[in-house]
Amino acid sequence: MHEQVHSEPRPPARSGICHMLSFDVEEYFHAEAFRDVIGPTRWSAWPSRIEAQMDGLLSLLSEANIRATFFVLGALARHHGRLVQRIAAGGHEIACHGDSHEMIARLGVSGFRDDTAAAKARLEDLVGQRVLGYRAATFGLVRATAWAIDVLTELGFCYDSSIQPVYHDRYGVPDAPPHAHWAIGPGGSRILELPPMTRRLAGRNIPLGGGGYFRLLPAVFFDRALRALARRGQSAMLYLHPWEFDPDQPVVPAGRLRNFRHRVNLRRTPGKLRALLAAHQFGRTCDVAAELTAQNLPSFQYLAVDEVAAVR
User: Fold this and answer.
1) pLDDT band for position 115 (50/70/90)?
2) Which has the closest alpha carbon to 138: 56, 256, 242, 30?
3) For residues 296 and 287, what is the distance between their CA atoms, to the nearest angstrom?
4) CA within 20 to 30 Å of 183's CA: 162, 165, 263, 283, which one?
5) From CA 233, how far away is CA 249, in angstroms rounded?
6) What is the rounded CA–CA span in Å between residue 108 and residue 129?
7) What is the DSSP letter of 98?
8) Is the pTM of this model over 0.85?
9) 3-state helix/strand/coil string of 42-67
10) Each residue of 135-169: pLDDT tens digit?
11) Which of 81, 83, 76, 85 is nearest to 44 (CA)?
12) Neighbouring residues of 231: CB distance < 8 A, sequence distance ≥ 6
């Protein structure tokens, strides 16, 4: 039995607004929370589960007649090229999740440019199409790494979905716009920014875009937030990972709290997503982005912390 969005059925939202559904295609052991336990040098010691995870996920999307965006990790595409091609053949969008799943801050400017360019080229070679979108590992585009906006523009990306307008222990730009906008980098370049969904509560943006929040909170929170945004004529961005549909993945020896955050409610993810797909219209990010670029969107300049202090 699938989890329902409400205890009583509600009619599907018919606002005409198409929300964005996205997936970060990476292995369970790529998670930043596990880096000090099974970092990149030990990834090969853990069994890959991405093929089976994607089989189930693609089947779920096919049943719902939904096309989505898949931000694919370059390191994964190196070993699973046919999977990437199969995703694209299903009409889904292939976007870039970097190459190494390394945080932007640890890569530095030149390392980030090389890492991202390598992943973009690999994905484009596999699918024979231009890769338009980017999402940083662990949403690592923050004020201190705002220079990444200029690099992404230089590399030819059309949109980004790396900035969370929230407070978090690893990421976030709390005062960033919570809706689609033009992100201006320190060098003056601009890119369409599509932040994951949030909802304002008690003066703060509450993260409702996906991931652990999606698994932990009741589905009604997401349903109401999607409906509220649609009434305002705004498209929301949702994100999930293939490993979030796999309760049988190996348990990483990373401590009780980190494993709780990684594994909570994994068995409920498919039913919760099915319920939202039945109640709302979802599509590929590239299609929504094409419509948004024709609109008069606001701009927001991202500066490093010291630069913000100087301006103020």
Assistant:
1) very high
2) 30
3) 17
4) 283
5) 39
6) 28
7) -
8) yes
9) HHHHCCCCHHHHHHHHHHHHHHHCCC
10) 999 999 999 999 999 999 999 999 999 999 987 76
11) 76
12) 15
Hey, which bits of the chain come out as E strands?
A: 19-25, 69-72, 93-96, 133-134, 159-160, 181-184, 190-193, 198-201, 204-207, 237-240, 282-283, 299-301
Cα 196 from Cα 308, distance rounded (Å)? 24
Burial annotation 236-258 (CB, 10 A radius, 16+ → b, else e): bbbbbbbbbbbeebeebebeeeb
> Nearest Cα to 48, choosing from 212, 210, 246?
246
Q: Any idea how long the chain is?
A: 312
For the record, the structure tokens of 132 come out as 């338009």
Domain-by-domain residue ranges, the chain? 26-38+54-311
The amino acid present at 279, given as its one-letter code, is: A
Rounded to whole angstroms, how far apart are CA atoms 96 and 21?
15
